[in-house]
Each structure stands twice: as C-alpha cells, then as structure tokens.
C-alpha cells in the first residue's frame, strides 16, 4: 500500500477509488446481513493509508506552497525556480 504513493497521481486516484469502492460494498453487504459490520485493525490501517496517499495528490495553492517551502532569500541563486 505504501508503494502506491510513489507512482503517478492518476494511479493513486485509481487505487484509492478501488479501496473506497470495496469499503462501500462491505458496508452495503453488511446492511443486508444479520452479522454486524466491524472494522478490523488492518482495514482501518488500509483506509488511513488510502486517505493519506490521496491527500498527497491534492495540489497546493502557490501561497501555501511559498509558506511551506520558501526559496527566496535562502541563498539558492542557482535554483531554476527563482
């Protein structure tokens, strides 16, 4: 699951959609069953990793990016981003 975060954003979105779809199917299946729905620790970890990986796909606004990673005034005059 962690290796998915190192590939193309479109693949990250696809894997996240599959995880969410599996979760929805599990919820709907348990609603029609007499067995109560229960999340195990591995399922919670998988959902948390999918959410964290999906968060990495969201682009940052330029103002927020400038506050998080300021390049101006760092003495990095050879940087192509200045």
Key traits:
82 residues, 57% helix, single chain, mainly alpha
Rg is 19 Å
Strand proportion, as a percent range, falls in: under 5%
Mean pLDDT figure: 74
Work out the helix count.
Answer: 3
Spell the H/E element sequence.
HHH
**Which structural class best describes the helix and strand composition?**
mainly alpha
Tally of separate domains: 1
Largest sheet: none
Give your account of this protein's structure:
With 82 residues, this protein is mainly α. It has one domain (2-68). The protein has three helices and no strands. Helix 1 runs antiparallel to helix 2 (41-57). The protein is elongated and about 60 Å long.
Layout of SSEs?
Blueprint: H1 9-31, H2 41-57, H3 62-68
Helix pairs in contact: 1-2
In short:
This protein has helices spanning 9-31, 41-57, 62-68.
């Amino acid at each position: 699951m962690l290796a998915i975060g190192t590939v193309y954003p479109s693949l990250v979105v696809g894997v996240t959609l599959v995880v969410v779809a599996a979760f929805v199917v599990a919820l709907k299946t348990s609603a029609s069953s007499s067995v109560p729905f229960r999340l195990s620790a591995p399922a919670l970890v998988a959902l948390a990793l999918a959410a964290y990986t999906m968060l990495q796909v969201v682009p940052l606004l330029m103002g927020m990016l400038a506050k998080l990673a300021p390049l101006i005034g760092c003495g990095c005059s050879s940087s192509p981003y200045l």
